[in-house]
Structures are given as structure tokens and as C-alpha cells.
Amino acid sequence: MMVEVARRELKGWSDKGLLIRVYGVLMNLEAQRAYSKSRGWNTVYGVVLDAEGPLAINASREVFEGCDDGDMVEIVGYPTIKVIRGELKVQLDVLHLRHPESEDDQNRRKVVQSNLAALKALKPVRNVFPLQSRLSVDVIYSGASAAQVDEDFYNGLGEAAGRCQIRPVPIRITSASEVAEAIRSSHADILIIIRGGGEDVDFAVFNNAEVLSALSEAKAYRVTGIGHSGNSTLADLIADFSAAVPAQAGSHIREQLCQVNKLLGEYEGLVKKQMSEIIELSEEVESVSNGSRAEINRLHEIIKIKSSHTKNIKTLWAVIAILLLILIIK
After folding, report:
1. Cβ-Cβ contacts under 8 Å for 28 (sequence gap 6 or more)
2. Which Pfam families match (predicted)?
3. What is the CATH number of the domain that holds 254?
4. Global confidence as pTM
5. What is the CB-side half-sphere exposure of residue 40 using CA atoms within 13 A?
6. 203-236 pLDDT, tens digit each
7. Which one of 19, 115, 158, 302 is most buried, by most CB atoms within 10 A?
């Protein structure tokens, strides 16, 4: 009954020109197209369109001509009712399909989608800021940049630079392989990646799967200061701290070092207090021990005296016994 009601309500949409326009990404086109071809069907059924949620669409093979998985498309069609394995489903029969993006836009978006998939597969974990008063820091930046982003970083770091052993790592920041190699070759406590602002295309290297993999595997505390506040990359998602600008990356390290020094100072104060208490207890134990030895020695003297008295009494009784024995014999 529900199927008939739904079909009655949707009947005539295509005849009356009541069509729906939807934007989305094709998800399983290749698999469904191959299945349709194997069955000899001209219509490709059950293609999933990701349009802020999955939507099943059907269209002729001619409509899908030139399309691939991952393509962003605009489709026009009308809803239909399908009963699949006893379950009522609304699908969209497509009459027209077009690519709203240019080929370059399509390619860039596919690269981003591929990198996002790689990022999900990495499952990166957070590394904690090292609890040390003096740290080794590697700073990866553009060796050809005229923007002096490394100076911005040092200005943000301020006086905390004296507590860091800093190793500058100037590289070709637009090369994914060089960035990944610089990350992998670092053995510092803290790894910093900074660069100046620019167009979105300039930051593609920080969405690269090779760079993301290297950054995910790094054991150091990772900080990124890539571009300006409007720039965002996938590398920022992996980093333990993502700064809006290189100067903020430096100030973050300075603030963290201040917190570490504060914690270390509190810890040292607690250790000193506990050591003082231990010394006091040791002195009390020694005092009690000395008192106990004196008492033991006093008791030993008493025992000696009593033993001596006992021996004398025994000697006296022996003399008396001998005298009595002599008197009796006489």
C-alpha cells in the first residue's frame, strides 16, 4: 500500500516537467557500469551520488559517458519509487548530467580526495610537548623565500631561543619529496614547518600523501605555521599544533617552554621538600637508635653487676658450707 501511495504521489513528475537538480560526487559508477554491461542493460542502476548524503541514481550509459568515479556532477531528473529486497527506496532517474567544474578543478579535487583517503588510512596520533628545559628544534622552511619567514619564527620565539638547540633546514618548499625527506631525516625533539602565504595552489605540497605519511610517522612534537590565517592544509590536521602564521609557531614554543620550566620548578621544589623531610626522618631514626644503644649498654652493666653479686653469694655459701662441715667433723 505504501508503495502504491508513493508511486501515485510521484506519478507525472517527468510528464509535468517537475524535475530536480542535484550536485554531488559519483561514488561507484565503474562497478555499476560494469555490472550493467554484463547483464546487457542499457541503463546503469544504483549509482551512488554523494550529495551531503548518499542518493541512488539511474541513467542510461550514454548519460554517464565520459564520467568517472570521483567526478563532481550536476544532474537533473525526477524521483521514482523502487522496492529493493522488500524495502521502499526513492531513487532519481537522471535525464541530464553535466560537469560544473573545469577539468583542472576536477583533477585537483580528485587529488584532494585521494589525499584525504590517505590521511584517514594513516590514523595519526598526537605527540606531547617534551618535558625538558633545553630542546633540539629542526626548522624546515623555504631556502629561496624572500619573505624572511624564518625571521618571523625567531621573532615569535624570542628569548626562548637561548633554551633551544635550533637546526635550520632550508629546502625547496614546493617539492613534496624534499619536504618529506626533511621530515624523515629529522631526529629533533620538536619539528617546525613554516612558509609564507600565497595562492591555494602553492600549498598543494602540504596535502601530498608522501608528506602526510612522513609527518604522521614523525616522533617529534610537530608544529606547522603554513601561510596566513586563511590558508589551511591537511598537514595542519596531523600537526600537534597548527599556527596561523610562522611567528605564532615561534610564540607557541616560547609559551610551552615557559610552562615546562614552571612545571620543572614546581617538581624540583617538591623534590627538595621531600629530601628535607627524608633527612629529618633519618636524623630522628639515628637519634632513637643512639638512645636505644645507650639503654642496651646500661642494661648490660646491670646484668654484669647482678651476675657478679650472684657469683659472690655463691662463693660465700660455699665457704659457710665448708666451715659447717669442719665443725661437724670435730
Report:
1. 46, 47, 48, 69
2. Exonuc_VII_L (PF02601)
3. 3.40.50.10550
4. 0.56
5. 0
6. 889 988 899 999 999 999 999 998 776 667 889 9
7. 115
